[in-house]
Amino acid sequence: MKTKNYLIIFISFLFFLTQCSEAPNWNDETHDTVSPGQISNPIVENINGGAIITYTLPLDNDLLGVKAIYTYLEGGETLEAYSSAFVNSIKLVGFPNTQQRKITLIAIDKSNNESNPIDVTIQPLIPPIQIIRNSLIVNETFSGVFVKWENDTKADIGVSLYVEDSLGFMNLDYTYFTNESGNYSFRGYDNKERKFKILLRDRWNNTATPLDTLLTPLYEEDVVARSPDGKTSWIRYGYVDKTTTWRGDYVGQFGAAEFSRMFDLSNSSNNYFHPGLTDTYDLRRFTDNPLHIGILKRPMHLTIDMTRETKLSRYKVYFRSGTINPNDPYYLTIWATNKTPKGPADFGNDKMASLSYWTNWVEVGGTDAWKNDWIQIGECLVIPPSGATEQFQWTSQDIAWAQSGIEFDFDPNYSNTPFRYLRIICYDNIKKTELVHFAEWEFYGSVVNK
Description:
This protein has about 450 residues and is mainly beta. It folds into three domains: about 40-120, Sandwich (Immunoglobulin-like), CATH 2.60.40; about 130-220, Sandwich (Immunoglobulin-like), CATH 2.60.40; about 220-445, Jelly Rolls (Sandwich). The protein has six helices and 22 strands. The protein is elongated and about 90 Å long. This is DUF4959 domain-containing protein.
């Protein structure tokens, strides 16, 4: 019985082979020489640097799409753009000016037959690159030039700096690429007057009118005040008079890991500022309320008196040498003011009122109202080159990067604003807890009154 079944299967297989001597071409389509119908009812919507043309497609069953033929400049290279048969419009962009242009639209079918052409006229609105140029602001900054722009259209642009050399030639320094509103500081120039030129370019190599300017970059120096023996004279504000507890600042210090180590030009593994163990940011230390024992508060704060008015350009944060420490900083913000920080007397010696002003802690009715009197000038978010967000993900290259110093710019909008006091808000360390260790920090800018 089993032998009979095998015989039936074998005969059936031979029959199948005789019927399928050639495998079918599932992609085979009938080709013809019949042109598709024209598109109709074209409607033009002019946009910045281009146009959107909407139309009615012909009813051909084998329609592939629509081709647009045009040039960016009169007498320039002929270009083509395509839109599929699944949509009834085509978008053309990259035009360098607002001149009228003829666009030829042709329907194409799957046999590559083309319809009779139909011409439409477009008149692009002001190109995005020119709108961005109109928003351009250029000022001197520390060791260079500060450039700011608005890019609401999110156009891909390059912002290039050209600098005059000793022979009077303008040479390209660097091009910064972006598709956002923003700013950039071109650095590396000494404190003498020279000619600079800013040139904006888009992805189609269109350029806006250059901005030529004569500027003197601001003088930049290490602004950390030090005594002749090299020890910083910057002050941990409120630590000596114990008013740190009135501001929600770190109140302690672990062993000999004092504040001055933050600026002693060393980031060795055992040379850092340690603002205290867990009990020093226990809420009870600030409110003196036994019900607050064990409530660890975040963010914590560190207030610094630079002892003299200072204009700030950038800062550099070093991690300790050796392996990454989980208490190294991850996310901080830096605020500044030139006014003496409020103390107990400003709140009628009411500690809860002071903590409400200086913190956002719910238990004390925190409002963070102090931010209305200070200016945020910096943000420190430590994302290593690998993109790691957890300590165990850091590579050896990431560690070398952090230990060689991570540089951040202060907000260049305040480069010419003198400040005396800084407040660092400590949100997270690498392991996402409250305590931040400060290995070595450098600050640059210029001192107003030495």
